[in-house]
């Protein structure tokens, strides 16, 4: 997902993208608002046809409102009162499919039992209202759409009230609403379903009054997910489950080394496989090429792929080797480079206590459970795509370029996705571009059918777009009280955003902000931070919590080490550094401490406490953990979380997100959680070689949320960063040896 | 080739070596069973064959011929008491996040509870052992533990 965004520079930097995006989408009929045909339920997509002039929002009343502010694209009410809310994000586990409808339903005063939810498209209405592009990332969905969805609900409610007032010929001021019903002063009432058609004719109000948060009855209440039943019965469809009439499935034979091209192809045996319809040479991401096998189904396609005889020309491409890469990074770390922070390092020479440390972090694959896929149907006037996309607008633009279409000729139907962790938004739209290249080639080969391109687990795991490998080095001078006098720090790692749409406002002075987020702050440390971004051909990408996946580990373990070296309590040491500032950090940490029994409870024999706190994506998470070492292997027993995300829209989801992010943080610690390359070839290909946490690795969890009425901040990612350092700090207390590598490597006691 | 899926006999024209997963998904159209790894590493494709949890991604349909096959679709449709209890517990505890692995998780949980003598409650270790073959990248494991134990209690 995305890193923290520098808001001050955002509008200028994104302006051209916004303009492109606005024109790149096909507007929905704006005034089809609220009405759905059919008395028995929702007839999705049954929009009455409205002239485009009105559709673009040039109608009198709604003229000043942007597409993101028009209720028509977001709320539909059926005759039976069912309310369908369209979400402007990708649901891939984080719970926006429930939380966004909760926010809208609150101000709509809907009957929550009648609220439903669905995904949107690349329509201009579904851009992030602050960023101006379609985007699910950076834990921003709730944060950026909280006000938007409240206002949408309030506008729709005002129109329903207006319709009731017209029906009853009374003043709107005499009416109120309650759980999906408009109530008149004389006891008369009308359900929203009965008013939906008439409400359509009402002007969309620009000015609306929002509820006082103390009157919230949906927001803040632990609420079961709207998709819980479908996801507990096999009924939930994901992108991979697309089944269009006549649809074919494609798999791709990919080069063994990133960027390689084909030297020779013998596809005669592949073409002879029963069910194989076409064998196509296609361009792939990063200048590579591959062979797509298109067949009746996935298994037939893989049979065809296995029968291919291919020779690859790898002579001209870079062949990254993890061992050599680490040596290169170490050499690079000793060179001068640009500074992110530039404190005076003179006190290092005279500091009474010194600490030198080197940290190594490997490449990591996202390894979402649903393998990457994209279904493409070429139509008379354009193309239609079905894909679990974090960036529907950018993906549509990329598809249009491949298919020689205008952007408005491409519709991206966002599909429920089986995880993603950042992989469903790549800067080159690699998955979508590849699927479109295949659809185009299949069409040229005479196949007139929709094509679903599906990645195998091996394709997915060996396909790059990893969390980059990083080397950190620190030299710290401090005194006997733990006061840091000078902290000289170096980070070496590939830049994620260079070459992406975010480069222009993320890369400054040659430093990618996503590599340094989470460094130093909020601690008042005199730090010099030097950054090197080597260029390698291994594609890299944001990965749940981005830079904080490594910076939080480095910061929180080093500070713990200073506390240990100066015999200070790690909680008290951090609290002293926060001083009277950083109230959210203090409150989150104190809550975790209080609820865990830290400092009061006597731990079981062989266990130690570990503590870490970290802010990412505007939310703060603190962990107090209990861990031990069993047979030389670190074991995590119990995790107590203190969370500060301001107002928790759905506390039940916040708890789930913290548990889930912590599990991913735990995964990073487990032996085998690394992607490595040997002579250009990725060495892992499935879950047997790439370790992820299983149920047997999981501790007990207690998640506690600091009460707050402030506008909410996101929780998709912030639970991840502090888990690994809290775990490492507990282990270091038991072994007296700091852990400076992920996954953990415990040296046997000499 | 004839398969008995969810008490229904289905005749399909497919290579006997085709994994059951792809016969279910691409040929029969039962997409509730998920593809995760293709190598019996993640458990997303778990179905029941003669009541036992198997990985359909590595089971050729020739091995499934003549056996009683049950997928998530029938296991949670309310007709099976244990399946209904597990489904209800999954909903009650809001286990799913992305939900993609949950078909396989639920099929493993049902197989565990069916394997126990009537009324016997699984220990925490027994639950972990039975569910260890199912990966969830969202990290729903804590709620899976709670849901399995709760489903077992409701069946006692």
Automatic annotation (TrEMBL), chain A:
InterPro entries: Ald_Oxase/Xan_DH_a/b, AldOxase/xan_DH_MoCoBD1, AldOxase/xan_DH_MoCoBD2, AldOxase/xan_DH_Mopterin-bd_sf, N-heterocyclic_Hydroxylase, OxRdtase_Mopterin-bd_su_IorB, TAT_signal, TAT_signal_bac_arc. Residues 233-316 form the Aldehyde oxidase/xanthine dehydrogenase a/b hammerhead domain. PANTHER family: ALDEHYDE DEHYDROGENASE. PROSITE patterns: TAT. It comes from the Bacteria. This is Xanthine dehydrogenase family protein molybdopterin-binding subunit. It comes from Bradyrhizobium rifense. GO terms for molecular function: oxidoreductase activity.
From TrEMBL, chain B:
Keywords: 2Fe-2S, Iron, Iron-sulfur, Metal-binding, Oxidoreductase. Residues 1-75 form the 2Fe-2S ferredoxin-type domain. The keyword rRNA processing does not apply. The keyword Nucleus does not apply. CDD domains: fer2 (cd00207). It comes from the Bacteria. Pfam families: Fer2, Fer2_2. SUPFAM superfamilies: 2Fe-2S ferredoxin-like, CO dehydrogenase ISP C-domain like. GO terms for molecular function: 2 iron, 2 sulfur cluster binding; metal ion binding; oxidoreductase activity. This is (2Fe-2S)-binding protein. It comes from Bradyrhizobium rifense.
């Amino acid at each position: 997902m995305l890193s923290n965004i520098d808001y001050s520079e955002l509008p200028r930097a994104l302006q051209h993208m916004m303009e492109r995006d606005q024109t790149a989408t096909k507007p929905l009929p704006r005034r089809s608002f609220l009405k759905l045909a059919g008395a028995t339920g929702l007839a999705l997509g049954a929009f009455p046809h409205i002239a485009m002039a009105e559709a673009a929002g040039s109608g009198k009343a709604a003229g000043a409102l942007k597409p993101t502010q028009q209720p028509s694209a977001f709320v539909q009410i059926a005759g039976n009162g069912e309310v369908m809310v369209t979400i402007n994000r990708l649901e891939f586990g984080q719970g926006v499919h429930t939380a966004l409808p909760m926010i809208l339903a609150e101000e709509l005063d809907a009957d929550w039992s009648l609220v439903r939810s669905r995904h949107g498209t690349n329509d201009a209405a579904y851009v992030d209202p602050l960023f101006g592009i379609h985007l699910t990332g950076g834990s921003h969905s709730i944060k950026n759409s909280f006000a938007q969805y409240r206002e949408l609900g309030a506008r729709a409610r005002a129109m329903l009230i207006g319709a009731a007032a017209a029906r009853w010929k009374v003043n709107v001021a005499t009416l109120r609403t309650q759980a999906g019903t408009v109530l008149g002063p004389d006891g008369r009432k009308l359900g929203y379903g009965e008013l939906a058609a008439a409400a359509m004719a009402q002007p969309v109000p620009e000015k609306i009054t929002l509820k006082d948060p103390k009157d919230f009855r949906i927001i803040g209440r632990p609420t079961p997910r709207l998709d819980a039943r479908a996801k507990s019965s096999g009924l939930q469809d994901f992108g991979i489950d697309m089944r269009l009439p006549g649809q074919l499935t494609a798999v791709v034979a990919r080069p063994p080394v990133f960027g390689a091209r084909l030297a020779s192809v013998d596809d005669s045996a592949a073409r002879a496989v029963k069910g194989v319809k076409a064998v196509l040479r296609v361009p792939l991401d990063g200048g590579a090429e591959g062979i797509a096998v298109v067949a009746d189904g996935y298994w037939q396609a893989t049979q065809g792929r296995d029968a291919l005889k291919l020779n690859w020309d790898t002579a001209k491409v870079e062949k990254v080797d993890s061992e050599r890469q680490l040596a290169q990074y170490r050499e690079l770390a000793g060179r001068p480079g640009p500074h992110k922070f530039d404190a005076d390092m003179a006190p290092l020479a005279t500091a009474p206590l010194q600490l030198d440390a080197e940290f190594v972090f490997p490449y990591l694959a996202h390894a979402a459970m649903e393998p990457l896929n994209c279904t493409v149907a070429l139509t008379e006037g354009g193309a239609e795509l079905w894909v679990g996309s974090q960036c529907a607008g950018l993906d549509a633009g990329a598809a249009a370029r491949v298919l020689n279409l205008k952007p408005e000729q491409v519709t991206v139907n966002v599909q429920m996705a089986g995880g993603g962790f950042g992989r469903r938004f790549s800067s080159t739209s690699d998955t979508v571009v590849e699927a479109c290249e295949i659809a185009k080639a299949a069409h040229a080969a005479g196949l007139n059918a929709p094509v679903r391109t599906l990645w195998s687990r091996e394709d997915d795991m060996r396909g790059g777009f990893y969390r980059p490998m990083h080397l950190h080095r620190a030299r710290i001078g401090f005194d006997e009280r733990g006061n840091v006098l000078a902290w000289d720090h170096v980070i070496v790692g590939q830049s994620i955003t260079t070459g992406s749409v975010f480069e222009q406002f993320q890369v400054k002075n040659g430093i990618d902000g996503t590599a340094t987020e989470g460094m130093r702050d909020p601690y008042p440390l005199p730090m010099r931070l030097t950054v090197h971004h080597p260029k390698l051909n291994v594609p890299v990408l944001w990965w749940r919590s981005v830079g904080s996946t490594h910076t939080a580990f480095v910061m929180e373990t080093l500070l713990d080490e200073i506390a240990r070296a100066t015999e200070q309590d790690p909680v008290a040491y951090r609290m002293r550094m926060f001083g009277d500032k950083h109230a959210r950090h203090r409150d989150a940490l104190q809550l975790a401490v209080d609820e865990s029994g830290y400092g009061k409870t006597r731990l079981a024999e062989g266990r130690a406490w570990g503590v870490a706190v970290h802010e990412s994506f505007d939310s703060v998470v603190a962990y107090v953990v209990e861990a031990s070492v069993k047979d030389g292997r670190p074991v995590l027993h119990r995790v107590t979380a203190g969370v500060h995300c301001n107002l928790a829209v759905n506390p039940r989801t916040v708890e789930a997100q913290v548990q889930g992010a912590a599990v991913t943080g735990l995964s990073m610690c487990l032996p085998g959680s690394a992607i490595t390359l040997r002579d250009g070839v990725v060495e892992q290909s499935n879950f047997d070689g790439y370790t992820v946490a299983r149920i047997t690795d999981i501790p007990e969890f207690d998640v506690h949320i600091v009460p707050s009425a402030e506008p909410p901040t996101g929780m998709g990612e912030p639970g991840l960063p502090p888990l690994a350092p809290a775990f490492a700090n507990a282990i270091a207390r038991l072994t007296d040896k700091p852990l400076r590598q992920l996954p953990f490597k415990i040296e046997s006691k000499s | 080739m004839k398969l008995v899926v969810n008490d229904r006999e289905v005749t399909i024209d497919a290579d006997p070596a085709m994994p059951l997963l792809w016969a279910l998904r691409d040929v029969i159209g039962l997409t509730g069973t998920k593809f995760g790894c293709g190598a019996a590493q993640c458990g997303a494709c778990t179905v029941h064959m003669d009541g036992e949890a198997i990985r359909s991604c590595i089971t050729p349909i020739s091995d499934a011929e003549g056996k009683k096959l049950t997928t998530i679709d029938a296991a949670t449709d309310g007709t099976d008491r244990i399946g209904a209890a597990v489904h209800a517990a999954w909903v009650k505890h809001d286990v799913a996040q992305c939900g993609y692995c949950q078909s396989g998780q639920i099929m493993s949980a049902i197989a565990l509870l069916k394997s126990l003598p009537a009324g016997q409650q699984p220990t925490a270790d027994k639950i972990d052992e039975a569910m260890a073959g199912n990966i969830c990248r969202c990290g729903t494991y804590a709620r899976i533990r709670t849901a399995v134990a709760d489903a077992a209690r409701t069946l006692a």
